[in-house]
Amino acid sequence: MIKNKVLSALVAAGMLTSLSLAEAATTVTIGTVNNGDMIRMQSLTNEFEKAHPDIKLDWVVLEENVLRQRLTTDIATKGGQFDVMTIGMYEAPIWGKKGWLTAMEQLPADYDINDVFPAVRDGLSADGTLYALPFYAESSMTYYRKDLFAENGLSMPGQPTWDQIKGFAQKLHKPEQGQYGICLRGKAGWGENMAFLTTMSNTFGARWFDEKWQPEFTGEAWTNTVNFYVDLLGNYGPPGASSNGFNENLALFNSGKCGMWMDATVAGSFVTDSKQSKVADKVGFALAPSQVTTKGAGWLWSWALAIPETSDAKSAAKTFVTWATSKEYSGLVAKTSGIANIPPGTRKSTYANHKYMEAAPFAEKTLEAMSSADPENSTLKPKPYVGVQFAAIPEFQAIATQVGKLISGALAGSMSVDKALASAQKVTTREMKRARYYK
């Protein structure tokens, strides 16, 4: 009987301890994008919480445009809804300078920050201070169907021109068979269609602003770019292309409906994964297309995890962020999903691992694309801003969102290219004047 009482007391004590731990757990609210790698990160919540029973993860997973709007509004108004934000190379330096983000200092020794590619670290820093840790990093490249190219007697160069891409698209376009020559981003958004179009325009000799911050949308280079884009995607792309962003085009490519696709290098692990891609063993890789120049053909980006200054759970948030961007996390992904699915583009050690390079047929081209991306020198003519697929100024997000809607409208046929570009010029000039870049 005494033994039973002791046992009961121990059980009760254990239950109370468990309850106390549960009550004491710190909740970390994470705002992230609904891309495949982030969905995988969310699926590994139990692994993190098992190792850190004092922390509970609460996920807010949103479509890219919605996420950007929510996070920007929250941080600018000091709303404090999130403890971890998924942001990138555009936001991190700008928000960090404003004092909106917690500096990523005093990281654990085993985190090995020097293993992160310098270009990625620099892109997430301002004045030498790191404000976000990279979850994955990327450039952009060309995905194409090797089988369809062989059937049609086509050969993809290591870096094709846009004129060559158009010729390939014409031959591959067989809509009656559910096969489209090319898939490209058409969905409006500064990080959707404008990220892609800015790299395309770079190769046509365009730039967002001249040295005096004057926009150039009505100039020859932008006019040639957007006319070419609307013609290419309108004639040889899937129906409803103006609604397609990264995720929609990934689904089309994986289902075998795209002869070619130019987009983020991070898609490499998805298009070659037989569990989700019908064409996994038929995909070829090339650098993003050039035209009059190769400058700025492939973008440079990192989806990274940052901690807003408004968070009331900074310590727990930092524990999560360092875990999710660590070598340990990469090892966990390799174990649970296969080594080719390690978040790419961030660490030198990933690309020094011969097992990864053998398992990931896209890895070599990813590394080449990222190495050639130069945010300082991405346009044919000199530019006053930093960035390949964006201009690193606070006003860019609002301006490019509006311009993206106009060009998506031209793609959908609701206005002419000339009208869209004239409106883009007007909108951009007005906003730059309002921001006092000039009178």
Description:
This protein has 439 residues and is of the alpha+beta class. The protein folds into two domains: 2-138 and 300-359, 3-Layer(aba) Sandwich (D-Maltodextrin-Binding Protein, domain 2); 140-298 and 372-434, Periplasmic binding protein-like II (D-Maltodextrin-Binding Protein, domain 2). The protein has 19 helices and ten strands. The chain has helices spanning 2-24, 36-43, 45-51, 64-76, 91-97, 118-123, 146-151, 162-172, 193-203, 220-236, 246-254, 268-271, 314-324, 327-337, 348-352, 354-359, 363-372, 396-412, 417-434; strands spanning 26-33, 55-62, 84-87, 125-126, 129-130, 133-138, 140-145, 260-264, 283-287, 301-306. A five-stranded mixed β-sheet has the order 2-1-3-10-6.
Say how many strands there are. 10
Indicate the overall shape.
globular
The rounded distance between the terminal residues' Cα atoms is 90 Å
Mean pLDDT: 95
Q: What does the main sheet amount to?
A: 5 strands, mixed
- Radius of gyration over C-alpha positions, nearest whole angstrom: 23 Å
The run of helices and strands is HEHHEHEHHEEEEHHHHHEHEEHHHHHHH
Which strand order does the major sheet show?
Answer: 2-1-3-10-6
Determine the CATH topology of the largest domain.
D-Maltodextrin-Binding Protein, domain 2
- What share of residues is helical? 40-55%
CATH architecture descriptor name of the largest domain: 3-Layer(aba) Sandwich
Instruction: Report the portion of residues in β strands.
Output: 5-15%
Count the DSSP helices: 19
What is the CATH C level class of the largest domain, in words?
A: Alpha Beta
Specify the CATH homologous superfamily of the largest domain: Periplasmic binding protein-like II
Structure classification: alpha+beta
* Tally of individual domains: 2
